[in-house]
Write a structure and sequence with these properties.
By secondary structure, the protein is α/β, with parallel strands linked by helices. It has four domains: 109 residues, Rossmann fold (3-Layer(aba) Sandwich), CATH 3.40.50.2300; 163 residues, P-loop containing nucleotide triphosphate hydrolases (Rossmann fold), CATH 3.40.50.300; 66 residues, Helicase, Ruva Protein, domain 3; 70 residues, Orthogonal Bundle (Arc Repressor Mutant, subunit A). 46% of the residues lie in helices and 13% in strands. The strands form five sheets. The protein has a five-stranded parallel beta sheet with strand order 2-1-3-4-5, with helices on both faces. Strands 7-10-13-6-14 form a five-stranded parallel beta sheet. Helix 5 links the parallel strand 4 and strand 5. The longest helix is centred in the last third of the chain and has 24 residues. The protein is elongated and about 75 Å long. The N and C termini lie far apart (58 Å).
């Protein structure tokens, strides 16, 4: 936090003194300013995480809020009444501080609303997120493989980039590969590279992602979707620290730090035979579990305000009713869903204020069917079960080959992977290709 600049704006030096002392002691960089004009100059000079503004002593602080690149504003005024606080929030402040002389109150509100410096895209206002961020900070400088586990949309790639930018490899490349989005017959060539003539269309040699990330960090996103054959080759690369290109004649040493992510429980995948146990332990040197957004409520509003600034023109604010509605939602889609909600709200909002009516959430899952709907529900269940059986039967016929199964079903490999993931989420056991080969052998 030491590189996060916090503006403290008050005409009287005495009003600035206590907040500045509290911020310095906590490792922030306070930037005192006696006027809104001076505060605007500070914003123009470099990123500012938050502005603490004594509203009654500096005049119209809304000019700072409307400035491009302006930070969130917290209005502070000792002993102010509720109407003043409500008015400040209606004018665009993200919060109101009625005890600016209380160091604990100052730090609490700064941790809740300050935008971290460095462009990491990380918001860590909630205590649980700060605990995870502390783990990430401590392991970032260590040359170990990290496994980030969390629901879809919790920000695993953001944390992976944080690990990279806070490591000794920060000046090296950061290369990300989405293992679930790439057909298995292409993923091997993409990861390990290939020599000229290795396959039709390989008109020149090409370095794989491991080589491209040498000296830096390679993110293997959704590692659980890699098929069994490629898991064995990946294990060898992690053990030997070298890759062999397709049709290559000699191994190529690589100095690459691997960060892997998954939204599945890999221990269950190991137990079911879908994931190699030895590869799991190679990846899970330092596991970090990312909590879902519903378990870190204090991050919701800072994230929403960050999306308002990034997706809008910087001047939009959330009404008190909109804030309450955001806090009341369970966020099954996590941060990604929140970003979508804010983007829709900016389109629908009338003027600079986003109200509760502008917030449109994803459609909730349908409630349990009533008696008169039981026949329709049974039909839906039957169709879903038939699809599951068809996929499983085709996988068995093709010895687990995702590509051949997708071809026979007339769908893309990506669609097949999605359906298999949904089947597993519903408790359907889907063996990997090696398990099916063993059954047919």
């Amino acid at each position: 936090m030491s590189n996060t600049r916090i503006l403290v704006v008050a005409a009287d030096e005495g009003l600035r003194a206590e907040p500045c002392r509290a911020l310095t002691a906590a490792g922030y960089e306070p930037v005192p300013a006696a006027s809104v004009e001076t505060a605007c100059e500070a914003v123009a000079a470099g990123p500012v995480g938050l502005a603490l503004v004594h509203g009654t002593s500096v005049g119209d602080w809304r000019r700072l809020r409307r400035r491009p690149g302006a930070p969130p504003v917290v209005v502070m005024e000792a002993g102010a009444d509720v109407p003043r606080a409500v008015r400040a929030i209606r004018y665009g402040a993200v919060d109101f501080l009625s005890a600016p002389d209380d160091p604990a109150a100052v730090l609490s509100i700064v941790r809740r609303h300050a935008v971290p410096a460095g462009g990491d895209g990380l918001v860590a206002s909630d205590e649980r997120t700060r605990a995870v961020l502390d783990l990430a900070r401590r392991v970032a400088s260590k040359p170990v493989t990290v496994l980030l586990n969390g629901e879809s949309g919790t920000g695993k790639e953001v944390f992976a980039r944080y690990l990279h930018t806070h490591s000794e490899r920060a000046d090296g490349p950061f290369v990300a590969v989405n293992c679930a989005a790439i057909p298995e017959n292409m993923l091997e060539a993409l990861l390990f590279g290939y020599e000229k003539g290795a396959f039709t269309g390989a008109t020149r040699s090409h370095a794989g992602k491991f080589e491209q990330a040498s000296g830096g960090t390679l993110l293997l996103d959704e590692i659980s979707e890699i098929d069994a054959g490629l898991q064995a080759k990946l294990l060898r690369v992690l053990q030997e620290r070298e890759v062999e290109r397709l049709c290559g004649s000699h191994p190529v040493p690589v100095d690459t730090r691997v960060v892997a992510t998954t939204n599945r429980d890999l221990r269950e995948a190991v137990a079911s035979g879908a994931f190699r146990e030895d590869l799991y332990y190679r990846l899970c040197v330092f596991p970090i579990q990312l909590p879902p957004l519903r378990e870190r409520r204090d991050d919701v509003l800072p994230l929403a305000e960050g999306f308002l600034r990034r997706l809008g023109d910087g001047g939009a604010t959330l009404s008190p009713a909109a804030r309450r509605r955001l806090l009341d939602h369970d966020w099954p889609g996590n941060v990604r869903e929140l970003e979508n909600v804010i983007q829709r709200a900016l389109i629908l909002a009338d003027g600079e204020h986003v109200d509760a009516d502008d917030l449109h959430f994803e459609m909730a899952p349908m409630a349990a069917p009533q008696a008169e709907e039981a026949g329709e529900a049974s039909l839906d269940d039957s169709l879903r079960d038939s699809e599951h059986r068809l996929i499983l039967d085709t996988l068995r016929q093709t010895n687990g080959s995702r590509k051949n199964t997708a071809d026979r079903l007339g769908i893309s490999v990506r669609t097949l992977r999605y359906k298999i993931a949904r089947m597993r989420d519903n408790g359907v056991a889907v063996p990997d290709s090696s398990g099916m080969q063993a059954q047919t052998g």
